[in-house]
Amino acid sequence: MTAASPAARERLYLFDTTLRDGAQTNGVDFTLADKLNVIGLLNRLGVDYVEAGYPGANPTDTQLFAQKRPSAARVTAFGMTKRAGRSVSNDPGVAALLAAEADAICFVAKASAFQVRVALETTEEENLASIRESVAAAVAAGREALVDCEHFFDGFKENPDFALACAEAAYQAGARWVVLCDTNGGTLPHEVEAIVARVTARVPGSHVGIHAHNDTEQAVANSLAAVRAGARQIQGTLNGLGERCGNANLCSLIPTLLLKGDYAERFETGVSREALAEIGVVSRTLDEMLNRSPDRHAPYVGESAFATKAGIHASAILKDPATYEHVPPEAVGNQRRVLVSDQAGRSNVLAELERLGVPVDRADPRLARLLDEVKEREALGYAYEAADASFALLARRMLHSVPDFFTVERFSVKVERRYNAKGEMTTVAEAIVKVRVGDEVFISAAEGNGPVNALDVALRKDLGKYQPYIAGLRLTDYRVRILNGGTEAVTRVLVESTDESGARWTTVGVSPNIIDASFEALLDSITWQLLRSGAPG
Amino acid sequence: MTAASPAARERLYLFDTTLRDGAQTNGVDFTLADKLNVIGLLNRLGVDYVEAGYPGANPTDTQLFAQKRPSAARVTAFGMTKRAGRSVSNDPGVAALLAAEADAICFVAKASAFQVRVALETTEEENLASIRESVAAAVAAGREALVDCEHFFDGFKENPDFALACAEAAYQAGARWVVLCDTNGGTLPHEVEAIVARVTARVPGSHVGIHAHNDTEQAVANSLAAVRAGARQIQGTLNGLGERCGNANLCSLIPTLLLKGDYAERFETGVSREALAEIGVVSRTLDEMLNRSPDRHAPYVGESAFATKAGIHASAILKDPATYEHVPPEAVGNQRRVLVSDQAGRSNVLAELERLGVPVDRADPRLARLLDEVKEREALGYAYEAADASFALLARRMLHSVPDFFTVERFSVKVERRYNAKGEMTTVAEAIVKVRVGDEVFISAAEGNGPVNALDVALRKDLGKYQPYIAGLRLTDYRVRILNGGTEAVTRVLVESTDESGARWTTVGVSPNIIDASFEALLDSITWQLLRSGAPG
């Protein structure tokens, strides 16, 4: 591939199947409202096609296609080609597709002689006829037609003539796109490139698409290999959702297509540079909707995608970010993070302080003390790279000051397992906390579903004048690890918190006593919330 | 590439850097004990090299290399080449590497003229001299030498002569391996293939390695592209740990190399088919050690890698698994997940019972009930794969019987933080446990450094006639994870125990209350110890 002037760039089409193949993900269920939200996200991004579901297969999808949905991307209905042994006009599946309020219809058809024989139990001729007649019916009904050639690559390896005949049948019947599917996900990039080249010798590449799965962790590479061999449509999903190991991840593919090497020079897509800078938000919004923890290591969009831990790397990054960044994080709406840990140097600490908004003078001699303190505390079990809010508090305490908003004078927690009045074995947890806020003293008690929960509820029950500042605070994760084993074991607790604005922060506590460690992390979380929300000291 | 007879297969070397580059992962901290465990896992798998750390960079790694570690894989120490402006014999970093108890030394050296200028602030000549002299010093000290050519691909694009000069300098000075590093992770597979081919025209491919990062989600594809261009060593990590988006994932690469297409035909590695079938266990053991949730969508080893949700796929799978599986799940120690009564699940349970010494008849109808029970309890949060002793107890209870050695009638735990008589803030934890052993009742109280420790000590203080059997029991690890998040969150506790014989077992407890969950795991541990030491029922 060689460089081309912008005017001569070839158009590459993006087809999103988050709502269809992505809905096959173990643990993922979209409501109708979810689906409409995702259609919105995909339009914000600028993909060309949204495969929104399978009308007739379930009530949600049937309802979705019952009315026209506003979308710049072409809303696509997925379904099977007509069954063998019946006419297309007499096939309820095809009828449901034709009745669906969709811009395009994507038929799935087997392109493997083995599959036709074993799974469909029909003949190759019947299979070809189903493709031709179904596509013709969609075109006659004024719809754009696509054909997903299922098992195309495995089918090609076993019987190339039949696989090619399926692709040609679809194209000749009028399909806008003939999509080559690596349904089982086992095909390797060099195979994809060679096989797609064989197809584009028969069907114009401008009508060929690729649908890759991640079963060898190469769905992205397979998609790009197909493009190199001439394919001009890529099917994928947000965050790589999809059956088994997922589909090709559009959140990785889109930045590569727009930012990297000869793809950016040779192709254009419907995604603008401005939309690209929102891809991180799109990715996280989907995770939030599905209540999945974002993959912090995800390429481009992950929290750690531009994070550096090693001290030698950090000092180079501060000299020139291009030394350790393959693309600028801002281009994909992400940010540089320099992690603080016992492997970190001064540069890591400086960069992290800047990100956290803690003002610091590079020449301040207390910086060296802070670095020593971090190393000493990490040797005790603290993990500041995972606990940004605790690090920010530590730094503010050493470099500036943090108000003593309140002090805890004592607390006690009790857990008891015993028979209750009905003779059932039951466990109760309760906590009492005594807090001083200025001249006032508050004693609060609470029950909880465990000692830490009881302590958390009691602690946040009444902080006097600070209560409004912490009203929206919520614990979202709690992790415990015992360090060093044996008799000198200490417990490290990480607490993740959030508030109504969606801000998220993590704090750490370390102690031989899990309750003490949890309490320390809870206190840091509340103090951080008071500090960041501007509570008066 | 064409097929080769087994005798003519080329050897491909695997270099694991989980303990070095993997230690750069955001949120990952290995203790010395963790590192020794991982060395064990990697030997079980059969990799050729284990890069265990960076002696001198932090106390853990210095301690690790202070003595010879038993390992079939070559234990490798990582560090920098000598600094510019000083002799190799006068460089403390190189001295630490030469003093390290390691089989091999992997030097990292810049191979980019830009990096040499901007990050190192030295000259190209100095950089080449550092490579030559450092390698020569390692070879003279009787160590195998490797050179990680940092930023090789970016450096090559900008100044191919200098990048190649670095690679050649390393090879000519006697390095066994010249490793081409895509340090920033932004190079694409077609670029890797073209550039590696340029290197193998100058340095024999049998001395060239590839070190890829996953910043475009193509670390696996890049590694394979390098092999296609002649490289014969792959560097990667378990579960793709590593800085930012991670390194090439050996848990994806190894199955592909052993099972797929022409890689399996053309190459051999140190990993046997038997070891391959344990790769899933290796992957999960590492996650468990680091207290990370396994990625259920991970290729080959993920819980969902062979799971089918779509009805049309499931019926085809039942006709012939090859219709929807690219490799047999058993080959990588995984299992098909379609139906509850599937045979793979049954054989896994049988194999595990055999391993744990629980006698069972293959035709016993209660096996199916046990399988259902395991699935139901795992859905509640139990993790029997990690908790062998709890699984063995569950199986024995359902297939045979387990004596009620003792019953706990009630317990209570109290944790209190308050000022002591000297005016110091102090935290005390104490527990009371009432146990019935036959006709005798024992009430024991104990203090501990935390509530679980207090409960454990009180529980094991006096079990009457069973006391001699549990005298050597000791808790060695304790892990907690919150599952499901939100209001329905439950806590899962894993407890690892050991006794004087060195036997080691893990038990699990699940409850909304962490104390209840911990208590359940403690009870299982004691019961298991009584059972295995032949205590009378």
Automatic annotation (TrEMBL), chains A, B:
SUPFAM superfamilies hit by this protein? 2-isopropylmalate synthase LeuA, allosteric (dimerisation) domain, Aldolase
Q: Domain (Pyruvate carboxyltransferase): give its ranges.
A: 12-277
Read off the Gene3D superfamilies from this record: 1.10.238.260, 3.30.160.270, Aldolase class I
Checking PROSITE patterns in the record gives: AIPM_HOMOCIT_SYNTH_1 (PS00815), PYR_CT (PS50991)
Q: Which reaction does it catalyse?
A: pyruvate + acetyl-CoA + H2O = (3R)-citramalate + CoA + H(+)
What are the record keywords, sorted? Amino-acid biosynthesis, Branched-chain amino acid biosynthesis, Isoleucine biosynthesis, Transferase
Q: Name one Pfam family in it.
A: HCS_D2
Q: Which GO terms describe its molecular function?
A: (R)-citramalate synthase activity; 2-isopropylmalate synthase activity
| Highest taxon in the source lineage | Bacteria
**Name of the featured protein:** Citramalate synthase
